[in-house]
């Protein structure tokens, strides 16, 4: 009887071992299927993410190119404006420069200290002068034999009286009669 129980227990143990082995194989098979499904989903997700990232990078690259082109155009426009401004300032400088006046036939007279003289009365006898023309400078000495030049009141041109223009006749407007509404 004891041998029968041992044999029966052995048989149950063998059956339980086979069931555990089958159960472990089934569990292992289910886990492998699950992990292979997850692997497929993960690969698809990875490819989709990589594609989305490539698209985002391409969009950002295109946007960067557009912004760079806009910045280049803005820089060119700004440079053109500044060049025009510099050219205008140069023209204004040459228009306001005293050298332009000298080129028209005038001269700049300076005393020995280099200060500009504005009247003949400011020049003393035997004073050293520097006369600047458009094409260069000349040193000169004031003539002491002649008295300083003064401007006579008669030599100044007198303003001629203006002729009075006849006044334009005023236009007379008549009130417009609108008439009666009734």
Give structural notes.
- The protein is mostly helical and 182 residues long.
- The protein contains two helices and three strands.
- The model is unreliable at 151-157 (pLDDT under 50).
- The chain is rod-shaped.
- 0% of the residues are buried.
Reading side by side through the largest sheet, how are the strands ordered?
1-2-3
| SS strand fraction | 5-15%
**Beginning-to-end CA distance, first to last residue:** 143 Å
Structural class: mainly alpha
Number of strands: 3
Largest sheet: 3 strands, antiparallel
Radius of gyration: 55 Å
Helix content: 55-70%
Average predicted local confidence, pLDDT: 83
The ordered string of helix (H) and strand (E) elements is: HHEEE
Please work out how many helical segments DSSP would assign: 2
Please mark out the parts with pLDDT under 50 across 5 or more consecutive residues, or reply none.
Answer: 151-157
Give the overall silhouette. Answer: rod-shaped
